[in-house]
Design brief:
mainly beta; 5-stranded antiparallel sheet; 525 residues; single chain; 34 strands
Length: 525
C-alpha cells in the first residue's frame, strides 16, 4: 500500500554534473524526502540489478519500507509491525531478498523481517535473545539467522531457524578472553567462524568449523611470529573449499591500550594441518603506494627510517588500522580492498547534566538531527576494531579515514601491485566501508563520497590510476549548503547509487532539509 507521505514528497528533479569526462550526461532520477524531525531515520540498501530498498522511521517507532526499481521509481511501500521501542540493527541481502533485523533490549526480543522485493511480500519472525547479549554480526543462510556477539566477554553465536522462538546457543568454548571476528558458511552449510584469542600479550587466530547443531567439527589455532600479535582476522571463502584469513598484525600497544598496527598478514592453506599453516607478513613499508596520503617530505623520512631499522634487523614501528572489505576474486587471484582509519579518542568528561560540553563533539550536525539517533547499534563494534574496549575514561568519538588501500595478489599469495586512493577529510561516527570498488573487464573503478562530492578513480589491470574525476550532484540554480552522512556504491551496469542528507537553498523555493537518493551514471569508456 502506498503511503501518503511518499505520494506527496517523493519527486524527481534534474541533476547537474560538473566538469567531468568519466560521468555521462545528466539524468532526472532522484528521490527527495523532507526531513521534519531530528528523530527521522533513513537507511538505503543497495540491491544491485534488483533496485533499492529504503527504510524510514521516526520517534513513534513506526518503520516504512519502500522499494524502488532501477530508475528510482517507487514500486511499492509498506509498513513493518515493529515491536514497541525496537531499534533497527542491521540488514542482510541475498539477491532480491532482504532480511531486516530489529532488537528490543528491555524485552530481550529480536525480530527478523524477510522482504521479497520483487513481489512486495514481507514475512515477520520474532525470537528470544539472551541477557547481556551484545550483537556485532548478522547473517542468514538457508533460512537460518545467525547473530554473532558477546556475553560478558564470551563470544557467542545465536542460531535460529526462522519461524522458531528459541535460538540455539553456540559458545566459543574458550577459557581465555576471545572475540568473534567473522562468520562464513562452507558449501555444505556448516558455520566457518574466526576468533581472536588473547593469551597474555599475544593474540592467536582460531578458526572453527561448526555444524548447524553446534558441534565443533574442526578447529585450527595459528600463532603469530615472535614479537608480533594478530589484531584482527577475517575469514574468506575462496572457492574449491579453500579459505584464507586476512587482517592486521602489530607489535605492542599505545598508552591508551590500543594495539599498534604494523601491517597486513595472510594465512593461506587452511585446509592443511595446523603445523603446515603459511602466514605471510607484509609491513606497510613494503608497499609502494601505502604512504601516498602523506607529503613527499614525510614519505622520504619514513623510507629512510625504515631502511635504517632493517639494516639493524628491526622494523619501523607504525600504526595504521585497516577495515578489510570482501575480496574481489578472479581466476588469477584476488584484490584486497581496505579503508585505512584512525580512531578519534577523547576523554569522557561530562558536565553536571551528564552531557558532553559544547564544542567537544566534532560530528556536530547542522541539521540538528542524527541518522543514528534511532539505533544504539550504530556504533556496535566492527570485527576490525576488536579487541579494544576502552581504557579508563577514554572513549571513541568516531573514526578518521586517511585513504583506501588496494593490493592485488595472485593465487599463491604473492603481491602483483598495490595502489592508494587518498581521502580528503573523511570521517564517520561508526566504522564502515567508505570506498566502493567494481571490477570492469581488466580494470577497476573505485568510488567514494566526501560529503557533497562523489569521486571516481579508474585503475588499470596493472594497478595504475588512469583517471580520477569528481562531481557535485545538485539541481541547477540551487546551492548545497550542507551534505552529511552521504554514501555511494556501485549499483548496476554503469551507475552509482548515491544517498544522504542535504540542506539546500533554492532561489525560488527557499531552504529545505531532505534525505535524497540519486542515480548517477558514469561512462565506462
Amino acid at each position: 500500500m502506498t503511503k501518503p507521505f511518499l505520494n506527496i514528497f517523493l519527486r524527481a528533479i534534474p541533476i547537474f554534473l560538473i566538469s567531468l569526462t568519466a560521468f555521462s550526461q545528466p539524468n532526472n532520477e532522484r528521490v527527495e524526502i523532507p526531513v521534519r524531525s531530528e528523530r527521522d531515520f533513513f537507511n538505503v540498501i543497495n540491491l544491485e540489478e534488483y533496485g533499492a530498498l529504503m527504510l524510514y522511521g521516526n520517534s513513534r517507532s513506526t518503520m516504512d519500507v519502500v522499494f524502488y526499481n532501477k530508475n528510482l521509481q517507487q514500486q511499492w511501500a509498506n509498513s513493518l509491525q515493529v515491536e514497541s521501542k525496537s531499534q533497527f540493527i542491521e540488514s542482510y541481502r541475498e539477491g532480491g531478498v532482504v532480511y531486516l533485523l530489529f532488537g528490543n533490549d528491555s524485552r530481550r526480543i529480536f525480530q527478523v523481517f524477510r522482504v521479497s522485493c520483487n513481489i512486495g511480500l514481507i514475512q515477520a519472525y520474532a525470537f528470544n535473545s539472551l541477557p547481556n547479549f551484545e550483537i556485532s554480526q548478522f547473517k542468514v543462510n538457508l533460512e537460518t539467522a545467525y547473530l554473532g556477539g558477546v556475553i560478558k566477554k564470551e563470544p557467542v553465536i545465536l542460531s535460529i531457524e526462522l519461524g522458531e522462538r528459541v535460538p540455539r546457543v553456540i559458545t566459543g568454548g574458550f577459557r581465555e578472553r576471545a572475540n568473534l571476528q567473522s562468520i562464513e558458511f562452507s558449501p555444505d552449510g556448516n558455520i566457518m567462524a574466526s576468533y581472536i584469542l588473547s593469551r597474555k600479550r599475544q593474540n592467536t587466530i582460531v578458526v572453527k568449523e561448526i555444524s548447524t547443531l553446534g558441534k565443533v567439527i574442526e578447529q585450527k589455532a595459528i600463532e603469530p611470529k615472535k614479537g608480533a600479535t594478530f589484531i584482527n582476522g577475517k575469514l574468506f571463502e575462496l572457492g574449491d573449499d579453500k579459505q584464507v584469513v586476512i587482517g592486521n598484525y602489530g607489535t605492542g600497544s599505545t598508552s591508551n591500550g590500543l594495539p599498534i598496527s604494523q601491517g597486513i598478514y595472510i594465512i593461506s592453506d587452511l585446509d592443511l594441518r595446523e603445523t603446515q599453516q603459511k602466514v605471510a607478513y607484509y609491513s606497510f613499508t613494503e608497499f609502494s603506494s601505502f604512504f601516498n596520503f602523506l607529503s613527499e617530505k614525510r614519505q622520504e623520512k619514513i623510507e629512510k627510517q625504515s631502511k635504517r631499522k632493517k639494516s639493524k634487523g628491526g622494523e619501523l614501528r607504525l600504526d595504521y588500522k585497516l577495515l578489510v572489505h570482501d575480496l574481489i576474486k578472479d581466476e588469477d587471484g584476488f584484490l584486497l580492498v581496505a579503508d585505512v582509519f584512525k580512531p578519534i579518542i577523547r576523554t569522557n568528561n561530562v558536565n553536571n547534566f551528564g552531557m558532553m560540553p559544547m564544542g567537544v563533539n566534532r560530528f556536530y550536525n547542522p541539521f540538528m538531527m542524527s541518522p543514528f539517533y534511532y539505533s544504539r547499534f550504530a556504533m556496535m563494534n566492527s570485527w576490525a576494531w576488536f579487541p579494544w574496549n576502552g581504557n579508563g575514561n577514554t572513549i571513541i568519538d568516531g573514526f578518521d579515514y586517511t585513504h583506501a588501500f588496494m593490493v592485488a595478489f595472485d593465487n599463491n599469495g604473492k603481491i602483483k601491485w598495490d595502489n592508494s586512493i587518498v581521502y580528503d577529510d573523511v570521517r564517520s561516527y561508526d566504522l564502515k566501508e567508505k570506498i566502493s570498488v567494481l571490477q570492469k573487464g581488466d580494470g577497476f573503478y573505485a568510488a567514494y563520497t566526501d560529503e557533497s562530492k562523489l569521486s571516481l578513480a579508474v585503475i588499470s589491470e596493472d594497478g595504475v590510476t588512469a583517471d580520477k574525476e569528481t562531481l557535485v550532484v545538485k539541481k541547477e540554480h540551487e546551492s548545497i549548503r550542507d551534505t552529511e552522512f552521504s554514501e555511494a556504491s556501485f549499483w548496476y551496469e554503469n551507475n552509482f547509487l548515491y544517498w544522504g542528507y542535504q540542506k539546500i537553498k533554492a532561489a525560488d523555493e527557499g531552504k529545505r532539509k531532505v534525505f535524497f537518493i540519486t542515480k548517477v551514471p558514469f561512462d565506462s569508456k
